[in-house]
Structures are given as structure tokens and as C-alpha cells.
Amino acid sequence: MKVIVLGGDGFCGWATSLHLSAEGHEVTIVDNLVRRRTDEELGVQSLTPIRPMPERLQAWRETRNSPIEFVELDVAKDYDRLEALFARVRPDAIVHFAEQRAAPYSMKSPWHKRYTVDNNVNATSAVLCAMVEACPEAHLVHLGTMGVYGYGKTKGMTIPEGYIEATLRSAGQEANVEILYPVDPGSIYHMTKTLDQLLFQYYAKNDGLKITDLHQGIVWGTSTPETDLDERLVNRFDYDGDYGTVLNRFLMQAAIGHPLTVHGSGGQTRAFIHIRDTVRCIALAIRSAPERGARVRIMNQMTETHRVRDLAEMISRMTGVPVEHRDNPRNEMAENDLVVANDTLIKLGLEPTRLSDGLMDEVVRVAEKHRERCDTSRIVCSSLWIKPLAAE
Ligand code: NAD
Ligand code: USQ
């Protein structure tokens, strides 16, 4: 298949591009490289030394002899070039990773809030609009988030895959309907993913676009069989307080002997998936497009759930590094349960990788190898969800 990967220079996008190319798909990466500029803005680098895009692509050509095309383009802003690209490539599938994805970054300041909304909503809107004009038969696979469901209102019930049966009551009348699961985002970033969902519903209904929205949990790990083939193919490893995600941060902190930074009581339960499973899930999603005119297909892309303090205690037992409970910079529930249905990807053939599969050691080894690149002053999360009130 011809596949365009939007955001293919990022953490999930790079590993996915290589995996799809290795599977024999013809891959075109689109990226405006903003994530590399954000590293400069924040004064922090990926723990692993990621190479410039031309070097990455040269290494892949040498390793697998399967060329990947790269187009530098802002999906949110360069609409005419995006539409022309879709018309030229005529993709069978478009994988959409091209959004600002860090919740703490999205909460840093008024600029960061507005940038995240502008970038993410405009990127998704432009992709859908350009598909209608240039490739209405293509299948869009979007990376959404488990965080659209929120963690406060599930009342212990299993979170279904996107939709829920509801009874509407109005003026003494009643009707049973199927609706999108009520959203409850916990950050400006997570809110943009709930807005994406409405765009998908509209374009599937009005234009018959084929759309899969993958509600993904927190991705952990860093390498895949393809990124391991050559050191120039190394994937990003974010560990800083804005972009680093919790499990990779704990494993990296353990590798350098930094106390494990648990926010609050650590009673937050979240969904997780290893990067190796991320790339497999996307390959499975591409192979099984919905029909034109079908409702948006929503799949929960996660393999297990864990409480943050349980993860920290487990890693502490493994490594001897202490756990440190810190004031929570976020506005989130201190304790929550989380039960998630992920039947669709399992039926499509996903064999889940679990924490117990020995891959945590691999992350620790990668972190130990590059420990001299770590700036310890950037580890603690400093982005606050709620602005402190000015003193009287
Ligand atoms: P990332 O920041 O590493 O990669 C995103 C890529 O998109 C970057 O290379 C960036 O330069 C590019 N990009 C952003 N805006 C763009 C624009 N307007 N035009 C062109 N390129 C643009 O993020 P990631 O961790 O790879 O996440 C990819 C997607 O998966 C995101 O949409 C995120 O919401 C979703 N997701 C990630 C995780 C996770 O734990 N990493 C979990 C669930 C969902
Ligand atoms: N946390 C800690 N200590 C830390 C870092 C985080 O206790 O050092 C806690 C947070 O307070 C939060 C939980 O761990 O309760 C998860 O935080 P995270 O940064 O790992 O994940 P999150 O902000 O939700 O975002 C990440 C990705 C995002 C994706 C989301 C999937 O950055 O792109 O959408 O995971 S999900 O969480 O399922 O919505």
C-alpha cells in the first residue's frame, strides 16, 4: 500500500514509518520538524542522539534498500501543499501523528495552550478537508488518546471502544441511542483530541471518509526491531518534565539513580502500550479499513493498566532507587480505577507485549548508555495546571 505518515519524525511516527516500510508499504513521511525545535525551546534533548532526517533516511536505504520519501510541510498551515501531496501520492492510507502531544507542554502558558489548540485542530481539519478533495477513498488512521474518556466518571465500568448506549430523556419522552462516550479531558492537549473526534464524526457522516481513531494509552519503551538495526535509526527518548511519559521517566530515573518522581499519592491508574505494539497496531489498522460511509471506527490501543505508585514501587524494588512523592503539578483525580475494552485489536491479531516481558531492562540499558546526555535539572515537572493566585 501507499502510506503517508504525518508526524513521521516523532517518537511513534518514526518507529511506525520504519515498520510499515519493512512490511513492504511505500512510505512517505510528512513532518515540519517542530518537535526538534521544541527541544531547543525547552533547552533539552532526546536522551538518545536522534539523527537529522536525511541521515535517518540514508541509514534506512542502506539497511533495508527500501526508500522512504520525506516532505517537510506544516500540516496545520500549508494546506495547498498538503492537498497537492495527497493528489500526487494518492495514498491508500494516511497515518496522522502530527500533533502537539504533551499535556504539561500544553499547560505551560497562554501561548502554549493556544498553540496546542491551533496546531492540533487545524492539522486534523486540514487533513480531512484535503482528503475529500484529493483522495476520498483513502483510509485515515489517527492517533487519539485514552485521555478523551477521562478518569473521573467511569464509576468502575469498563470503558468501551468509543461509543456507548445511552437513554435520552427530554420532556417526558425517552429514546435509546448510541453516542460517543462522554468526553472528560484532563488537559488542553487531551481536549484537542476530543475536538478531533467531532471532526471525524462530521467527515465520516457527510463525506463518507474511512476513518479509524486509535485511542492510545501511554507509550513506553523506545526501540523496535527496525530502530535497532542501525544506531543512526535510533528512536527519540523523552525524559524531561514536559515530554517524558511516566514509565519511561521512572526507568530512566532508576538508571541514573534519581528518586522516582511520583505525583501526589500515585493513585492515578493509566493505560499503557509498548512502542513495539504501537507499530503493530497501526499495521493491523491499515490492513482492515472500514467501508466508505461506515461510522468512525474507534479502537482502544492499550495492552494493560497500572497505578502510578505500583509502577514506581516495582521499579524501586528492581533497582533500589527510592520513590519520592511530590506535590502533584496537575489537576487530576488522586485515585482512580480503570478498566478498558481492547477487543478489536486483539481480534485483529494483536499479541500484547507486557511489562513482565523483560523489556523494562532494555529501557534501563538504553538510558544507562546515554546517561551523560541527561540534564538532571530538567527531570522534575514544572508545568502547573492551575496558576497560583497572586498574593494579596
Ligand atoms: P512526537 O511529538 O514525538 O511526534 C509528533 C510529530 O509530529 C513530531 O515529529 C512533530 O514534529 C510533528 N508535528 C507536530 N505538528 C505538526 C504539524 N503541524 N505539521 C507537521 N508535523 C507536525 O509525539 P509522539 O509521541 O510520536 O505522538 C504521536 C501521536 O500519538 C500524537 O498525536 C499523540 O497524541 C499520540 N499519542 C502518543 C502517546 C505517547 O505516549 N507518546 C500516547 C497516546 C497517543
Ligand atoms: N506522573 C507522575 N510522575 C511523573 C510523570 C507523570 O506521577 O514523573 C503521572 C501524571 O501525573 C499522570 C500519569 O503519571 O497521572 C501519566 O502521565 P504521563 O505524562 O505519562 O501521561 P499523559 O500526560 O497522560 O500523556 C501521555 C502522552 C500523550 C498521550 C497520553 C495517553 O504524552 O500524548 O495521549 O499519555 S493517556 O494518558 O492514556 O491519555
UniProtKB/TrEMBL annotation:
Pathway: Bacterial outer membrane biogenesis; LPS O-antigen biosynthesis. Gene3D superfamilies: NAD(P)-binding Rossmann-like Domain, UDP-galactose 4-epimerase, domain 1. SUPFAM superfamilies: NAD(P)-binding Rossmann-fold domains. Residues 3-288 form the NAD-dependent epimerase/dehydratase domain. InterPro entries: Epimerase_deHydtase, NAD(P)-bd_dom_sf. Pfam families: Epimerase. It comes from the Bacteria. PANTHER family: DTDP-D-GLUCOSE 4,6-DEHYDRATASE-RELATED. Belongs to the NAD(P)-dependent epimerase/dehydratase family. This is NAD-dependent dehydratase. It comes from Aureimonas ureilytica.
